[in-house]
Amino acid sequence: MIASFLLGGPLAGVIVAAIGSTDAREVRGAVPWYGTLYNHAAIVLAVSAGSLVYQGIVAISPEDEGARAAATFAGTILAGVALWLVNWTLSVAAVSARTGTPIRTVWAQDVSGIAPTMIGLVPLAWLMAQVFQLPDGVGWWATALFAVPLLTTRLAYARYVETRELFEQTIEALSKAVDARDNYTRNHSSRVSHVSEAMARVMRLPESEIEILTWAGLLHDIGKIGIRDNILLKEGPLDKHERILMNQHPTIGAEIVAPASQLSAEAPLIKAHHEWFNGSGYPDGVEALHIPLGARILTIADAYEAMTSSRPYRKTPLTHEQAVDQLEKFTGIQFDPEIVPILVNLDRSILDRPPDRPDELPTMLHQPDPRDLNRDRDDHVAAANPAKPPPEPTARPALASDDVS
Fold it and tell me: Which structural domain, as residue segments, surrounds residue 337?
């Protein structure tokens, strides 16, 4: 497209953009008509902007042949930058509107990784135009040689997108695998990740840190894979030995993800998400600002989500007001006092738990929980023998400090 308006002017560039950007999915009818119209309009506008920038620079370039050649090359670079900026802006706006994802998130995740490569192709457009003008018809067939690097770049970009999607899907699958061990913790990790991300956006953290926090939220409990079921699923309070074993799950989680180079930044957050602000947490007993910021955010989101969910030791979840009261009670002890108000002031649409969809549950969770059946049986026996005193309750205290193990 750039080479075409270098050779034939804005009209040539617009024609190539309008026709040459036709996608096979559009031909098959897989893209709605308004999507097809928007896509083609976006690239036509982008090419128009680029060609106008180029024409403007060429118009004011000096008459000297050497200086004019330099101006032509510089104009090509600036035209390419203008073209990509317009195209990316329109594309990102469409994706944001369609998915509800913030514009800066789409820009950071979908554009930043390919921007250097796409800008780097602009000099290739200038070279294509120069080669095409070679005499004796050489330029016609020599220009076709550029199809190889262009196709390679196209395939590399497609692989980049596929690899990123696979990476995200793998993280989500690992998160669901952890939650699927217990009917009471389904969707816990995704909820913690969602609330943590919302808090980070209110705090206006850089997009790269938000992404790290989001993934750490999904994987913060992955270390529970290494905790035996008789401890992890226990209804009553943990004894001292069981508590020691349970408290190892942040370290286990960090060790699981550490070998993955793309998760190296998430490992410290996973390890520290049970550290307390006053230094009495685990596993390392670090305190205050020595705890990574992302971990301090995770701790609060994790506690809130746990308190407002059903648990085997507390069938009735705490209300929003009760959970907030516990967060404020432990402010400065367990939680960072500057971050707790961030969660408290979040919109309730973010904090409120959406209803569970049975079709999203793993097969193993479609059946009633055996712990509920046992509890119902005990209640039935107690009702049939009123003279016999009921067994002592085994529920753990419904406190923030005891609710996120």
Answer: 184-355
